[in-house]
TrEMBL record:
<dbReference type="InterPro" id="IPR032675">
    <property type="entry name" value="LRR_dom_sf"/>
</dbReference>
<feature type="transmembrane region" description="Helical">
    <location>
        <begin position="85"/>
        <end position="109"/>
    </location>
</feature>
<dbReference type="GO" id="GO:0016020">
    <property type="term" value="C:membrane"/>
</dbReference>
<dbReference type="GO" id="GO:0005524">
    <property type="term" value="F:ATP binding"/>
</dbReference>
<keyword id="KW-0808">Transferase</keyword>
<keyword id="KW-0677">Repeat</keyword>
<dbReference type="InterPro" id="IPR000719">
    <property type="entry name" value="Prot_kinase_dom"/>
</dbReference>
<dbReference type="Pfam" id="PF00069">
    <property type="entry name" value="Pkinase"/>
</dbReference>
<keyword id="KW-0547">Nucleotide-binding</keyword>
<comment type="similarity">
    <text>Belongs to the protein kinase superfamily.</text>
</comment>
<dbReference type="InterPro" id="IPR008271">
    <property type="entry name" value="Ser/Thr_kinase_AS"/>
</dbReference>
<feature type="domain" description="Protein kinase">
    <location>
        <begin position="172"/>
        <end position="443"/>
    </location>
</feature>
<dbReference type="InterPro" id="IPR051420">
    <property type="entry name" value="Ser_Thr_Kinases_DiverseReg"/>
</dbReference>
<keyword id="KW-0418">Kinase</keyword>
<protein>
    <recommendedName>
        <fullName>non-specific serine/threonine protein kinase</fullName>
        <ecNumber>2.7.11.1</ecNumber>
    </recommendedName>
</protein>
<keyword id="KW-0325">Glycoprotein</keyword>
<keyword id="KW-0067">ATP-binding</keyword>
Amino acid sequence: MDLSGNRLSGQIPESLRGLYFLSSFSVAYNNLQGPIPSGGQFDTFTSSSFEGNPGLCGSIVQRICPNAPGAAHSPTLPKRLNTKLIIGLVLGICSGTGLVITVLALWILSKRRIIPGGDTDKIELDTLSCNSYSGVHPQTDKDASLVMLFPNKTNEVKDLTIFELLKATDNFNQENIIGCGGFGLVYKAILADGTKLAVKKLSGDFGLMEREFKAEVEALSTAQHENLVSLQGYCVHEGFRLLIYSYMENGSLDYWLHEKENGPSQLDWQTRLKIARGASNGLAYMHQICEPHIVHRDIKSSNILLDDKFEAHVADFGLSRLILPYHTHVTTELVGTLGYIPPEYGQAWVATLRGDVYSFGVVMLELLTGKRPVDMSRPKTSRELVSWVQRLRSEGKQDEVFDPLLKGKGSDEEMLQVLDVACLCINQNPFKRPTIQEVVEWLKGVGTINRNQNKDP
């Protein structure tokens, strides 16, 4: 977000701390005054982001703020630079989807509650300590509210303190950011013994109080499967919340397919098929085995992480339960990512198991085609991956959808079988989509059955 050199005046709104997905920020060379917000992403931005504003104060620019009465209520940016408008424009520009998405973003934001100011999420180092689960009971110990639990049977870390965690992330340095999503930023942490962890710093408006939050985290920690990212522990103190996960050496599927130079060429068909099978197994465990059953609500390639052997692990499952009130297996808040959201969400914003199946179908199309779900740089008729694939398939040109890196290498029949499965998953009618367990069985049979034995979409 670059607002430098725009003759802005007034004070930086505290509500901008809610833009937790920002990796960079600049209001340099304006006429801004007052304290620079602290906490959240503002602890990661460089001092150059605020230079050229003599009236700004705070530790980042090494100018002490006067303790004038009423300072917290000093003027904010002019109304013409309404915070919601700025956020909406940034979302529209970053998504590359033009005016329509910008307007949609503004409308969604107008429905969401943004609290100006609010409590800082700065960590109080002299009061916060984190301990392992052994010997600590969160309901009876004196410092129960300050405890980090590691309820898994096989833990990567023991007796981790907040000081060690801060050191491992270099005080949540921006350079250690390895991912971002709808629930916060993810940082790489390297402990003194060399152990690597992924630490998600949660952001957002929590629908659950501290005790309920702990209960939900402990419930999620029981979801143990070889194709799920393992939750190692958490830390909670007032408004400050961290989740600690196992570290995935090879990052996300999105990174390998769409961002890493020569990444797609390193994902041959057998590797891509293994990823699809592994991710479907993890999703099936969430839907049918673990208790309570979990609707992911944001299945996408960036939430499928890869270990050093390119085994797939589904990430960010159940996080909506920590942020928003969750009462049944059907939830009523829109959570999802453009290109993966099932069409039925347009009529009723309800997340279901079959909605997850649709999103997973889109992931399979990404694996087959090497293309993003939405790409505004492409011609209008092929910008949306789902409609493009469906059109070519209806015209009998299904061979044209496959990634050129995969074609003609002896796996075309297997790719056609997976395409059949993916097209079943992206059926416009949710009741005609298969269950995820059916998807698992079909993917398991790819290469061992005749394509004509698959159900006809």
